[in-house]
Each structure stands twice: as C-alpha cells, then as structure tokens.
Amino acid sequence: MRVNSKLPHIGTTIFTTMSALAVEHGAVNLGQGFPDFQCDPRLVEALNDAAKAGHNQYPPMAGVPALRERVAEKVSAVYGREYDVASEITITAGATQAIHTAITALVRPGDEVIIFEPVYDSYEPSITMNGGKAVYVTLNAPDYRPDWRQVKASITPRTRAILINTPHNPTATCWPAEDMRALADVLKGTDIVVISDEVYEHMVYDNQRHESVARCPALAERAIVISSFGKTYHVTGWKVAYALAPRELMTEFRKAHQFIVFTVHTPSQHALAAYMAHGTHLTLPAFYQAKRDLFREAVRDVPLAWMPSPGTYFMSAGFRHLDRFREYSDLQFAEHLTREVGVACIPLSAFYREGMETGIVRFCFAKKDETLMDATTKLCQLTRDLRG
Ligand code: PMP
Ligand code: GLN
After folding, report:
1. Looking only at Cα atoms, what is the longest distance across the chain?
2. Which CATH class is domain 14-39+283-387?
C-alpha cells in the first residue's frame, strides 16, 4: 500500500535529529531547547502529593479550576488583563497542542494564516494539516523586526489568523510595544484572529518588559494567548501549558480541544496550581540573564559572530566570516560542531522553508553552569582548528 502523506515535505524534527547526534557523539547538547538541570524539588513533591491525594482521574475539560485561578491571578498581576476563570482560560497539553488546537478551531480549507519567517517548526504543519495556507512574512537580519507594510500587503479576504511569537525562537528578539501597536493598527476593522505564542514570556532581560498581547486591549479582544509551564518551571517534559482568549474565541477553541486531547494530565495540574503560589516566575528573568551573561562572557574568545539575546534561552552565532567554513551549510556546520568539536547546536535553516541558507547556528543556554563552561572549553577548539 502507498501512503498518501499529508505532509510529504516534513521529516523528523531537527531538534530530535540533533539531540540524537549529540548522544551518538557524546557532545554537550546545546541544541534542543530544554534545561539539563532539575526543577524546584517542591514542584516534584507537589506532583507526588497530588497523585497520592488521589487526583488521578479526568479533570474538567478546561483544566483543574485551581490552576486556572492561579493563571488568571498571574496574568492580571503581570499584564493587567482579567480573564474569566470559567470561560476564558484552558489548560493544554503543551503550547504545541494549544497552537495546533487554535489553528484547528479557526482554519478551514483554503484559509490563510500569516506567519513570520524564521518560524517555529510546528506552525506551518499545523496550518497545512488543516487545509490552510501559510503566508510568510520575512523577518530580516540583523534585527529581525517585522515589516508592517509587508504584513499589511499579505492580508487578503482569506486571512483567518496571524501567528506571532515574542520573545522569538530562534532569533531571541522581543517585540517592543511599538510593534504591538503596529499590529493592532494593521488588524483594525478585520476579523483576523491573533494567535500569540508567548512561551518565553518570563525570559526577557536587561530590565525590558515582555509586551504580551494581553497588555494591549485592541489585540487581546481578538487573540488567543499561549504560554507554557514547561518553559517557566523547567519541566518541558510535563507538557502542560495554557491558552487565554475572550469567551467567544475560547468557546471555539474548546470545541476543538475536547476532541484533540479532551483533558490534560491531572496530577501535574494540581502540582502546578500549588506551586504557582510561590511566585517563582518572578525570579526567572534574573536566573536566565545570569546564564546568558555567563555564556556570553565565556564564549567571547570563540571566533563566531555572536548575536544579542535580549530574550528566550537561545543565543545564535554566524560562522560565514571564517574562511575554513565559508562553504559549509548551517546544517554541515552544526554537524561539524557536534561531531568534531563536541557541542551540538541547531542550524537556523530549520526555521526557514526548504533551501534557505543562513550561515547561523543556535545555542541553548538553559543549562547548568558547568555544562555551559564545558561547552565553551570545547568551542575554544574552533580557535585551535583555525590556527592549525
Ligand atoms: N513555541 C515555541 C516558540 C517554542 O520554542 C516551543 C518549545 N520550545 C513551543 C512553542 C512548544 O512548547 P511546549 O513544549 O509547551 O509544547
Ligand atoms: N522548542 C524547542 C526548541 O526550539 C524544542 C522542542 C521540540 O523538540 N519540539 O529547541
């Protein structure tokens, strides 16, 4: 039998591929974005407590009420917008599911969704699986700011949604309030829904603030805002996230949610509800800024063109200025670093359509300080390679 693939252009994700290559070569894995350190032991205890207390059956479809309450309180305190616990907040099985669910709830065959390239790898397949068409707007180096004229020109009567991501994976850029205002202006008078991927909301550095769509009433009233507990509490493997939206939009989101997953792992939700009371998200910017600064300082002598990292836990670097690697694709360079130097990273072309060559690779600094120092020592090998 021949299987007629719905996604013939898609293989295994680059994150899985590079993590496997890192294991094969015993390389330090700064590729796939996940912490190599433990979460707060109090969170593990809370998970244990929840399971022991018998929270092991289906929770309500929208999520455990206590967790939705904590989310509502946090969002109100941080961004000043009130979301109704009963009708405007849904707990999801990770941000990936929330994004897929939002697209499934909204997009009919032939509908268009505007996305920004470089783009997180799950967006386009979710649009395509629903029969929609991804319409690309390019974020250009070096600052990767959106060109709002291009966005405006990309809108057609078929545009159903625009999917944004700030702080941005992989460029580590953060949209200022000015971009949020520009987005609101462009969408004024349309029925276009904003799907806002804000999984790195608490990883914004140098005293800047995260410009959540939830802060901007003109956008929030037409938006599904998504964040992930995996990023915020160092538990990417738990796959628990949340979506916020005004009631009418959330009603549609839940229609899809209930048939995609129905509900999300119950003990984790109780654990997160108990743990959120500690307010540790407030300490996250300082925690990761210290790691970013440590890594940036340590790689100062590594002869790559290091890019700024005002947000997320990623820092990217160019290599095309090095004669020895001028002819390398970013994938070849990432493989070289993994195999020969012992540090795995992600080629930026993975965030572009087929055939794009960036000359840039991405490193994740959500790692123990000793892992970062170990990686840096290895990366210094590059300097010796170039001399030798
Ligand atoms: N969006 C972006 C931009 C991400 O980087 C990630 C994961 N790293 C996700 C969504 C997915 O988050 P989750 O693991 O909660 O599905
Ligand atoms: N989002 C993470 C990254 O960008 C990886 C998640 C995944 O493996 N899909 O590295």
Report:
1. 65
2. alpha beta
